[in-house]
Write a structure and sequence with these properties.
The protein has nine helices and nine strands. It is of the alpha/beta class and about 250 residues long.
């Protein structure tokens, strides 16, 4: 039986990843801090579901998670856990930012590295790292969050090229959505001013593209145009545009 591990599985895109993969016949290991939403999700799924309550902003837990499931013969790793924070860099809470770096970067890095090693041994498997369209540009007023997603984006691209040169059958992809209608807004204390895509649409699109070995997955025409547009915009103009977008998002 095929099996997938999904972090950040208690809500939003992570929850929809679980629904989609279960419909495709995958057994699941769901990981998040909140148990109750995962238990509710488990009731509606038809495949075998194991729930692990774990705070991956503690990077030691990322290592513990791997050691707990390394013998489960996992076929897909989806690194979806993460959060954001809006506000001027001089005012945002340092401890919260360091926690964000630990979750968005360090735990993702640990899980990617450890599971990649296992996937390479059997020469099969998929890794989907969830970044953001914010990976394409600096992010004044969300400086730390944008920076974490740049790391995820570049790490994934670099690993992709290494796998390609090896002619490996292990595949890695990076999901870079724009605004998605999830609980992210509440955690980051911001409000999107443009229409957000549904998490179900984004998750379906991402899974389809992942299985087609797409490297950079960008749901929605608007974000695809942004991806192209930003390549031709001078850095200082890009910074000004991004600042104004983030300023309007603040509650």
């Amino acid at each position: 039986m095929m099996k997938a591990l999904i972090t950040g599985a208690s809500s939003g895109i992570g929850r929809d990843f679980a629904r989609i993969l279960s419909k495709r016949g995958y057994d699941l290991i769901l990981v998040a801090r909140s148990v109750k939403p995962m238990e509710e999700l488990k009731k509606e799924l038809n495949t075998k579901v194991d729930i692990i309550s774990m705070d991956l902003s503690d990077i030691e837990n990322a290592k513990k998670l791997y050691n707990q499931v390394k013998n489960e013969n996992i076929d897909i790793l989806i690194n979806d856990a993460g959060f954001g924070l809006i506000g001027s860099f001089r005012k945002t809470d340092l401890d919260k930012e360091l926690s964000m770096i630990d979750l968005n970067i360090k735990s993702l890095h640990i899980l990617t590295k450890l599971f990649l090693s296992d996937f390479l041994k059997k020469d099969s498997g998929y890794i989907l790292n969830v970044a953001s369209a914010s990976a394409f540009t600096p992010g004044p007023l969300m400086a730390t969050y944008y920076s974490t997603k740049v790391y995820v984006y570049h790490l994934t691209l670099a690993i992709y090229e290494e796998l390609k040169k090896m002619k490996s059958n292990v595949h890695i992809s990076c999901l870079c959505p724009g605004p998605v209608d999830t609980n992210f807004n509440n955690v980051a204390n911001c409000e999107f001013k443009i229409k957000a895509l549904s998490s179900n649409y984004v998750a379906n699109y991402a899974i389809d593209k992942m299985f087609k070995n797409k490297l950079v997955i960008i749901p929605g025409l608007k974000m695809k145009l942004v991806y192209i547009f930003e390549r031709f915009v001078p850095t200082k103009l890009k910074l000004n545009i991004t600042y104004n977008i983030q300023y309007r998002k603040q509650n």
